[in-house]
Amino acid sequence: MRPDAWLGLSELADFSNWCFASQALAARICRQLAVHDHEMAALPPVPQLQALDPVAAVTDWPVLSSEFSERPVWHGRPAETGAYARRHTHPLLAALAPRPLLARVVARLQELAALAVSDFALPLPGAATALPLGKGRGRALVETARGLLMHEATLAGGKVADYIIVAPTEWNFHPTGALRTLLVGRDYATAGQAATLARRAVLALDPCVAHDIAIDWQA
Fold first, then answer.
1. Residue 55, CB half-sphere, CA atoms under 13 Å: how many?
2. Is the pTM of this model over 0.85?
């Protein structure tokens, strides 16, 4: 299917027809998740981080700190960033919300297809902005494929005195953030099934670092 035609899929039935009929790699991935991503009627709410310009970001976070970079919060709560956060109001993604892993993979596929055909109807990764915050201090924001990336540098005496990076991975893998929401409350019969779910949840959020999964199984 052409990318522009695929982007036109907004009804769950049309998406399902493509998902279970096509032999394309993307369809096979979605099909596997559609079968195994058990429906969750009510996920604990995790705010979806909206696209922010530097001025809005300064209002929310006047100064970035090393503690904030490790566990960032938005309006006092952890938030999700990335393709799903940018596109979660799309009708198809809203319909797929009870299957959260599938919804996040489809959001990434939507952005890939939109970039291929220059469809800017919804926000896409790539925007970069910067703002001076006073003498010797400035901040840059980039909407990456993984989500919001922030850099803040402080100069003193012609040298870098401080440098803070807040990466998308720290948002999505906050101890009480998006990954926890995708895992807590699931019920699986074996440690192997639990490990598979955990691995898929991690990959759906696309971390920028390597990861290991260990299951402490208690029957």
1. 0
2. yes
